[in-house]
Amino acid sequence: MVLGNYKSVISARAADAEILKRSQDGxxxxxxxxxxxxxxIIDGAIVAGPGEEPWxxxxxxxxxxxxxxxxxxxxxxxxxxxxxIKEATRSYGLDKxxxxxxxxxxxxxxxxxxYPMAMxxxxxxxxxxxxxxxxxxxxxxxxxxxxxxxxNVKMESADKMDIGKGKFSxxxxxxxxxxxxxxxxxxxxxxxxxxxxxxxxxxxxxSTGSVGSxxxxxxxxxxxxxGENVWSKAIDAxxxxxxxxxxxKPGLDLVTKLATDKIDKNKKFVEARATxxxxxxxxxxxx
Amino acid sequence: xxxxxxxxxxxxxxxxGCLVSLADNYEGLFKIFDDYADLxxxxxxxxxxxxxxxxxxxVEGSVCLQDETSVREIKETRERAKIVVxxxxxxxxxxxxxxxxxxQWNQPQHESYVPIGDLIDVDIVIPSCPPGAESIxxxxxxAYLLLxxxxxxxxxxxxxxKPLMDLAKRGTEACGCDLMYDVINQGLCMGCGTCAASCPVxxxxxxxxxxxxDRDMCIKCGACYAQxxxxxxxxxxxxxxxxxxxxxxxxxxxxxx
Lengths: 287, 257
Prior knowledge:
The complex is a heterodimer.
Chain A: E1 8-14, H1 17-22, H2 28-38, E2 44-49, E3 58-62, H3 65-70, E4 97-101, H4 103-114, E5 126-132, H5 140-150, E6 158-164, E7 167-172, E8 177-181, E9 206-209, E10 218-222, H6 225-236, E11 240-243, H7 252-273
Parallel strand pairs in A: 2-4, 4-5, 5-9
Antiparallel strand pairs in A: 1-10, 1-11, 2-3, 6-7, 7-8, 9-10
Chain B: E1 5-11, H1 17-23, H2 27-36, E2 37-42, E3 54-60, E4 63-64, H3 68-80, E5 81-87, H4 89-93, E6 113-114, E7 124-126, H5 133-148, H6 151-170, H7 177-184, H8 194-198, E8 204-207, E9 210-213, H9 223-227, H10 235-238, H11 241-251
Parallel strand pairs in B: 1-2, 1-3, 3-5, 5-7
Antiparallel strand pairs in B: 4-6, 8-9
GO molecular function, one term (chain A): iron-sulfur cluster binding
Pfam families (chain A): FrhB_FdhB_C, FrhB_FdhB_N
Keywords (chain A): Iron, Iron-sulfur, Metal-binding, Oxidoreductase
């Protein structure tokens, strides 16, 4: 279950140049939601939109292409997208809801569908759940410390942030690049991430991330019947360029390696929690 | 269909919102009563005066200690039902009836209300105020499979219901503070916002990626904690979400492409 259940995996990028211009990697999430919105597969999508402070996302219900475009790119801090899951079906009146989220947020979506104790009208309204690969997340103040203190870049001057090849990189508006070893960011991770046993969003309809694919491309797992249905239609309609995952470097081996590393490390952490104190432990959320 | 199970709705001190939520399954409610369950007791919908023997008792509302009839009926319910379900915040945790201080016309002495678990053993808890129609449907379908299904179905139903049984054992108190005690203080919160979406009275906002609870607004319905993906998460059941959703839709006569 390292990579979860999936029907197919492929390397892809958006065919739309406007989307690619500001997307993190292959622009998969923005392009797929834009397609689903155009085709009426979804009425709107819960995405991490721009917030008041630089690089601090706010969950929004995007019902237009412009709103989707405004939310492009990765912000490496918490966006409580699940906050709007019920609101989207109520105040916004959506019948077909799209949602993007980290693996833990996809777990929350599926728990909400199977155990909808406080999720009236939610279970049958999830039309497209897109998951993003996630090793860990940072609280906003943690990200601020990484960018401003370690990388010496003001948050408002940062143009793009990226994690890859063992480094955390900040690109500034003026073209400078500031990099620090990923190791230096570990202490700023949010603690709740350390019990997470999912790297590639196993429970999404479609999950995606840069790992495994060349720069500017993303790896895409198609996981459910629903995901397969939407993805294949989008491919047929020409919304994505694709490459066989077996033909690209570094390929699925790297995804498997990172997923295995994360799960092994966090399993040990969950086990260690059981005897954290003296004859006492901390809660295991999975039992 | 043969071998229907018998279900009753037992009404304690509640607002009938949980019953309305059951009814909000619309045609699904008829499907349940046509194929899976006979409604053998329900003050609002069935003309039966005394609590009969039944497989599943869905109890709505808390018990007023000063109301002899309520106290007797909750005890009878436990004696006559195989499975007692605390349906909704009041039965499970007291909910808003926790805040009663009596003095209401025309029974001013009615002042103490307790969740049913303070007086009887409860098998399953469905929190929230009211519980989502779909969650009641799911528990009904799973209860049917548990009592009448094949071995494989019984196994699935038992796994599905276990967290709700564990909630029943966890106690009869719940409030937004549980998010602090059992999730944030335990280093488990990852800021997904599910709790904020769950709260029926909007007492939860997300501040710095964590829930902030307005404790004056919290009604103690237990929704936020139960819905949190870090309160319980049973991989064996939730990882099979696609198949289970299809099975439930199939059982309810939907889907089937």
